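Database export, one record per block. Field names are fixed; values are copied verbatim from the stored entry.
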Amino acid sequence: MDHKRGAPRFRSNRQALALGPAPFAFILCAFNDIPLPKIPKSQFFNFVTQYGRGGLYDYWRDISYGQIDLSGSEVFGWYQMKYSFFRDGLDPFKNGTQGRRAWIAEAIRLAGDNGVDLSRFYGVIVAVNAYGVDDSSAGRNTVLQVGGSWGQSNWKWCNKCEGLTFAGGAGDCPAGGVHDHNGSADYSLALNDPIFQGQDGWKWCNKCQGICFSGGADLGPCPNGGKHDHTGSGNYKLAFGKVGFGGQNQWKWCNKCQVLSFSGDSTQGPCPGGGVHDHTGSGDYTMVVNGSNMNDSFNAHETGHCLGLAHSWSAGPDVEYGDPWDIMSAMRVRTFDNKIHSPAGPGINAPTLQKMGWFSDDRVFTYKVAPSRGLSTVKLVALNRAEDSGYLMARVLTPDHVYTVEFRRATGWDAGIGGDTVLIHELRSNYTTGQRNWQWCNKCQGLTFTGNAVCPGGAVHDHSRSANYSLAADGTGQTGWKWCAKCQSLSFTGKSGDVSTCPAGGAHNTTSSANYGLQLNNSKAEGQKDWKWCCKCQGLTFAANSTMGACSVGGVHDHSGSGNYTLATGASVGQDQWRWCSKCQGLAYDGYSVCAAGGAHTHVGSGDYSLPLDDPTASGQDKWKWCSKCYGLAYAGTPSPGPCPAKGNHEHGGSGNYTLNGGGGENGQNKWSWCKKCQLLAYSGNGSGPCPAGGNHDHVGSGDYTLANFAADRTFLIKAGWQTGDVFTDEPRGVRISIGAMDSAAGTVTITVGPLPKSHNPILPVVGDSAMTLVKRMEEVALDGCG
């Protein structure tokens, strides 16, 4: 089938990577040795399925300006896992592999055993009934800890004497007065538990409230006077040495007073036996810590990873998790107490929102630095007031840097940021300014354009979870089904008067298509049933999932009047490489390019790359062109265009002029090389792929090209807390950004961007948190297991 090919330069590269429905399966999983927590299922349900409840549903709808919708999320369980918290909590695979992957795999297994079809969900959130195990995200799935009800809780550390004491009563402290539990976690101890593997003989003292070893000849002096009194105490067990569960170690026995105290601080704490505690002869005990990550900040961060977001950074020095105004800096961010799932917030920085496509380019003011361009003054609207008209972000383009400016108000999800402020970020790649939808082919190692298969759900179709369907070209069944050369989808053309709207714009272009025949209402047909015709867009879409999928006419597909179509899978009949799109539910052709390794290019495992197109200011080597036959990128600066895997030579008609960075200095992926035999660009980090000129690519004489891509396009916070009158300058790049009037009531700020004057004194005020202050504070706060 010779499909007509279109030029990629006319494709929009501002489509979102994540748009529309993103329902999660919320699976509740219990360790087999911890009772279920007393949390109603409605709490989990409200967290992910209903707006106005202060949970993840609210966060992502608000932050993405309505582009991300968790509708369709469901809660399943509780299911009992095969894993024990005390035996497997630290290392379930017994090989050091991340524990979260075990909990996710177990949740998926248990859901399947209980008849849950997970194919209709974007990803999985696993809740485990413990704390101190590995959580965080893995791909589209994530784990959170909701705690359990094991043992006796309410044991706390005293910050005066370092002892572990029961907080249910007032005990005398050897440091004077009563114990002070400020800053303590909540610990649980095994009480009268014959199964728990640990050292018994530990008892509670009803006078000082401490946990003390009672197996020695001396009960030890009590700060309340006399000896410890264990009347009324049960039998406690403590685990020491190598344990199988997560918790806090460095708890030790004092051989003078018999109490358990924390040894990890600079002081050992006063002992009622005189002096400070003496831990000579003690083992290293590990305490089970209680807690929960059922909060908005942690889960927004981890599901952000599921949606494709990377960590945010600060600059000067470069620090990962360094942007406290951005949720992707994990638990080092500025949060607030929303009284529901606290802590909560903050939002996401503007360049990331723009990169994800959650606001359009018409909300971005762009200034390209040039010697002939003067100053420009622009008014910005606060990010959390997107309903107001105006620019949400300003960006300043230089050949190797992008600077962005945004206004943040201390309201909504940003209520904890500490006050209204302007933030300036830098991006050290040109990913967001180039043409996206370039991907690596894992067969020939080449870079190929994939941006023609436009999806009504946003960006291009997602075939990552599809089977390989085969269609009978000019075959039997109901004919009139045709392929569109613009969006790659299949639509029905057999009814006159019906409007077929293409997501790439206008009507479908089916002039180059065969006439496909589909099995309709045939109960004996082999294959997958439940494919239906949409009476609005004329497309063929899968109808057995909970979502009908985005329709190019608007809304979702309408299957009124449709019969039941059956599609064959595999390559047994007709033309294969037709695949289901998980975003729009439609069927689209995935074999729309020619690979030197045979068949069509395959992009499994590829990132999304972006190339500067028709940009005379871009630094690097130009004269790279797109081939309209094989969809590869080839160098056009030599007399011969080079042999094409689609036969003959490359054809560059309709291509723009691409510029590649061959000198480093940009965030991205290097080891991309030119082949001197076929002129194509291919990845050389895996060896050499097959060349259409014969044999493998020959990269001798090539530079080492670096390609900007989604994953490497980091945002770096440039200081913080900019206010009216502050000025940022970058002298080597000739950039000046000054902050003008800030109107908090109107939610706007005025800024001026432009080149540096010929004679100037750079003003670099220290405002807000200095870089070193940020680093120091970050080192003092735990990350809570972010992956």
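Remark 1: The CA atoms of residues 479 and 532 lie 14 Å apart.
Remark 2: The chain has four domains: 20-147, 149-290, 308-428+714-787, 464-591.
End of record.
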